[in-house]
Design brief:
By secondary structure, this protein is of the alpha/beta class. The protein is built from 14 helices and 13 strands. The chain has helices spanning 15-22, 61-74, 89-101, 113-124, 139-148, 160-168, 193-203, 225-228, 257-266, 268-271, 278-293, 296-314, 334-346, 376-393, and strands at 38-41, 44-48, 106-110, 129-134, 151-155, 175-181, 206-210, 237-241, 251-255, 326-332, 349-350, 352-354, 364-369. A seven-stranded mixed β-sheet has the order 3-9-8-7-6-4-5, sandwiched between helices. Strands 1-2-11 form a three-stranded mixed β-sheet. The chain has a three-stranded antiparallel β-sheet with strand order 10-13-12, with helices on one face. It is globular and about 55 Å long.
């Protein structure tokens, strides 16, 4: 009998094969330095406009020292899950400090941001529940909903009328979770949290915000999207990561003690994963402490972002307008995104290509993102190169 070979899908010509053949493959460039405003990428000094290192803390001496000291004291890893032998005192301290910072009763940390969404949503939601999901939410949210076996209902991106129409049709015997990115990772847009919270109250739903790109970016103190809108008491679950503003690796959820305790004891991605390494915990703690003591860093980040946003507009470059350090630039064609990235890298500027299906067909982007330590001199040089490359491409 005929049997389909499992590996058949790997044959044929894929988009990455075509890009490699054309010499415009834009992924997996190697760095020989740490993340900073300027990095060494494949032997060349390059202005980094593609990092989520929003506060620039990955190169902070205090953060690095904290990681080194933890490595010396606790070793390189925990060799087990938090559930059993893998809980260190610094895990608990970090959770308490985050809960206090985010004005929530309790906090729980996970080994990665992706795993955080898997662990939270799969624990909280089940077969009799419904998750309302913004169409442009992060991939980890989609996978988390699949893992939960809850019914997923997608609503049009930031379309509150569509969200309400979907909410109206949810049976009264279903639990309802509305989940949204706080800051959408590709566009840099901020979610419509006031309207979402209002609809949640109206229809008896709970609200979860993935604030991976909001922490350290929004709010007077950098507490994120909920603080930005003064809705910290209205958001039921705040999720975030350490790999961006907090210059480390891992993720967290902040909620009520009851919810956190429940997730802690039933979440399979949490229970069956090794805990965050000591150095990562220490770096996240020190980064959080620096943010708490220096809230002006958020203003500095906003100043840098606004400087670039205004500069790009003045050059006639079409961008997705936002109030965050994520500034996507339209190039429209997927191939143009690859070519532009290659040309910019040759000129000492790194940006991220975003093509379909991450964007609609014909809406390819260069995703640029900025950090508080970026200088005007660096930004001016980058703008000049971006303008020249777009002009060459006829964009």
């Amino acid at each position: 009998r005929f049997v389909m070979d499992l590996f058949e899908k790997t044959n044929g010509e894929h988009i990455y094969d075509i890009a490699k053949e054309k010499g415009i493959y834009p992924y997996f460039h190697q760095l020989t330095t740490g993340q900073d405003t300027v990095v060494n990428m494949e032997g060349k000094k390059t202005i980094m406009l593609g990092s989520n290192n929003y506060l620039g803390l990955t190169s902070n001496e205090k953060v690095i020292e904290a990681g080194v000291n933890a490595l010396k004291k606790y070793g390189s890893g925990c060799s087990g899950s938090r559930f059993l032998n893998g809980t260190l005192d610094i895990h608990v301290k970090l959770e308490n400090e985050l809960a206090n910072f985010l004005h929530k009763e309790a906090c729980l940390t996970f080994s990665t941001g992706f795993q955080s969404n898997l662990g939270i949503i799969s624990a909280i939601c089940g077969r009799n529940d419904v998750v309302l999901c913004d169409k442009e939410n992060h991939a980890s949210i989609y996978d988390a909903i699949k893992l939960s076996y809850a019914k997923m209902i997608r609503f049009e991106h930031s379309n509150m009328q569509d969200l309400e129409e979907k909410l109206k049709n949810v049976p009264s015997n279903n639990g309802i979770l509305i989940v949204t990115d706080g800051v959408f990772s590709m566009s840099g847009e901020i979610c419509k949290l006031p309207q979402i919270c209002s609809l949640a109250k109206k229809y008896g739903a709970r609200v979860m915000v993935d604030d991976a790109h909001g922490l350290g970016v929004l709010g007077k103190h950098g507490r994120g999207t909920a603080e930005y809108f003064n809705l910290e008491d209205d958001v039921d679950i705040i999720m975030g990561t350490f790999s961006k503003s907090l210059a480390s690796l891992g993720g967290y959820m902040a909620s009520t003690k009851k919810v956190v305790e429940y997730v802690k004891h039933v979440s399979r991605p949490y229970i069956f994963s090794a805990s965050i390494t000591p150095a990562s915990v220490a770096c996240a703690r020190e980064s959080l402490n620096i943010l708490i003591e220096n809230p002006q860093m958020v203003e500095q980040l906003n100043e840098v972002s606004n400087y670039m946003r205004i500069g790009l507009k003045n050059l006639g470059i079409k961008i997705i307008d936002s109030q965050t350090p994520i500034i996507p630039i339209y190039v429209y064609k997927d191939e143009y995104a690859f070519i532009a990235c290659k040309m910019l890298l040759e000129r000492g500027v790194y940006v991220n290509p975003v093509i379909s299906p991450a964007t609609p067909v014909g809406q390819a982007l260069l995703r640029t993102s900025y950090t508080a330590p970026h200088t005007h001199e660096q930004l001016d040089y980058a703008m000049k190169q971006i303008k020249e490359v777009l002009d060459i491409l006829g964009v």
